[in-house]
């Protein structure tokens, strides 16, 4: 237990068990283990206008209203804006940490806390987390001006209201510096690996449970990827299967109609198994059944700035990785010596990396062990939570 126990409020607009929630909850769980009192407010995993509350792994989890249709999703965020205007007053928090500040409900929490602190109704530090590149050619580029302009404004202005900014990658840190945020206020807090939940498993046992053949090389891609990167993935698999016929591609995660059409028209489509979206509790089984884990990504600034949650899952599974050479992903794979990276938009190169691993099974085992070691040390969520705890200590010093 830490010498100074803090009351910490974490907020993410992401729904429970999805996206940024996993980052928030993983950090919160380990902070709670260190003796801090952690409240995590997030979106509900199902459609609701109600607020529910329960304790999960020592975290006081508050699930806020959530809708999954347009325009109701924006009305639900308005509800969260109103709730976040009073949420900081629920407890005498020492730290209020808002994630995804480009979303109105997250920005509202920072703004409200700043006002309450200025009138001495609160005495806490304020932190903003930056996990994705949204404006200036990022995620908001796929949306209209109605969303892009205010979203970019909130993304770039909200951090200046906070005492510190936590970022998930060096690229986001550089962007924060160029915006004018002082270096000493920026903390690189990467995503991590859930080593208690995801562990190396027997391939034989995992494949028996999933009904997969024992004598095939199983390549797995977990999680959604955009259509461009998905086409590269399928083409790379086709080129792999041309030279190594006993290969299966296992795809886990929700796909859209265009993705499914790519599978239907692919050569070796009979060797592609689409599992669909599966409960997160079953992810370790699919990872454990795999020989090589694949991570195909689109060549764009938002992907270069990202530290994917599933990369931490891959490390924890103890399997070698072949990924598109995005900046942060490349840094992790090379630093951990746990796999190979291929140039973006290069299915031939991607296939060559896969085939290189297939031809060297002993090396695959060594890379898998290196992945697990990295998951248990540098990228263990507990290690990363310690870095965040130290950042909070600095924030408290700055705000008082």
What features would you describe in this structure?
There is one protein chain. It contains 15 helices and 14 strands. Strand 9, helix 7 and strand 10 (247-252) form a beta-alpha-beta unit. The protein has helices at residues 20-33, 72-84, 104-118, 145-157, 170-179, 203-210, 227-243, 257-264, 283-288, 301-304, 309-317, 327-336, 347-358, 361-376, 381-399; strands at 7-15, 37-43, 52-56, 59-64, 95-99, 125-130, 164-167, 186-188, 217-222, 247-252, 272-276, 292-295, 321-324, 339-342. Helix 2 (72-84) runs parallel beside helix 3 (104-118), helix 7 runs parallel beside helix 8 and helix 11 (309-317) packs across helix 14. It has 400 residues and is α/β, with parallel strands linked by helices.
Helical residues, percent: 40-55%
Question: Superfamily at the CATH H level of the largest domain?
Answer: Glycogen Phosphorylase B
Low-confidence stretches: none
CATH topology value of the largest domain: Rossmann fold
Rounded mean pLDDT score? 94
Number of DSSP E strands? 14
Order of helix and strand elements from N to C terminus: EHEEEHEHEHEHEHEHEHEHEHHEHEHHH
Work out the strand percent.
Answer: 15-25%
CATH secondary-structure class of the largest domain = Alpha Beta
Q: What is the name of the CATH architecture of the largest domain?
A: 3-Layer(aba) Sandwich
Shape: globular
CA-to-CA gap between the ends?
23 Å
Kindly name the structural category: alpha/beta
Strand arrangement within the widest β-sheet reads 3-4-2-1-5-6-7-8
Q: Please outline the major beta sheet.
A: 8 strands, mixed
């Amino acid at each position: 237990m830490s010498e100074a126990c803090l009351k910490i409020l974490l907020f993410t607009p992401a729904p429970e068990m999805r996206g940024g929630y996993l980052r928030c909850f993983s950090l919160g769980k380990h902070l709670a283990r260190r003796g801090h009192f952690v409240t995590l407010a997030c979106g509900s995993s199902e459609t609701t206008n109600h607020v529910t509350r329960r304790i999960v792994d020592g975290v006081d989890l508050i699930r806020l209203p959530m809708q999954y249709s347009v325009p109701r999703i924006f009305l639900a965020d308005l509800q969260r804006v109103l709730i976040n205007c009073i949420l900081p007053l629920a407890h005498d928090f020492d730290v209020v940490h808002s994630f995804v500040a480009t979303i109105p409900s997250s920005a509202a929490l920072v703004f409200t806390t700043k006002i309450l602190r200025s009138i001495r109704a609160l005495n806490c530090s304020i932190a903003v987390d930056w996990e994705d590149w949204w404006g200036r050619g990022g995620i908001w580029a796929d949306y209209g001006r109605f969303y892009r302009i205010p979203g970019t404004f909130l993304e770039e202005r909200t951090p200046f209201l906070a005492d510190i900014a936590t970022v998930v990658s060096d690229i986001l840190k550089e962007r924060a510096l160029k915006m004018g945020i002082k270096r000493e206020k920026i903390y690189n807090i990467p995503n991590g690996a859930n080593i208690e939940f995801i562990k190396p498993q027997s391939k034989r046992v995992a494949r028996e449970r999933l009904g997969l053949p024992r004598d095939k090389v199983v390549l797995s891609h977990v999680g959604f990827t955009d259509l461009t990167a998905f086409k590269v993935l399928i083409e790379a698999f086709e080129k792999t299967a041309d030279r190594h016929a006993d290969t299966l591609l296992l795809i886990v995660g929700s796909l859209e109609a265009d993705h499914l059409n790519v599978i239907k028209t692919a050569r070796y489509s009979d060797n592609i198994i689409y599992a669909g979206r599966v409960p997160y509790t079953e992810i370790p089984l699919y990872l454990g059944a795999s020989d090589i884990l694949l991570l195909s990504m689109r060549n764009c600034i938002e992907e270069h700035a990202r530290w994917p949650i599933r990369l931490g899952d891959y490390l924890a599974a103890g399997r070698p990785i072949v990924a598109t050479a995005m900046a942060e992903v490349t840094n992790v794979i090379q630093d951990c010596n746990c796999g190979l990276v291929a140039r973006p938009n290069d299915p031939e190169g991607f296939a060559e990396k896969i085939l290189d691993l297939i031809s060297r099974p002993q090396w695959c085992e060594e890379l898998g062990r290196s992945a697990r070691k990295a998951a248990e040390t540098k990228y263990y969520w507990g290690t990363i939570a310690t870095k965040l705890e130290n950042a909070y200590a600095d924030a408290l010093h700055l705000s008082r």
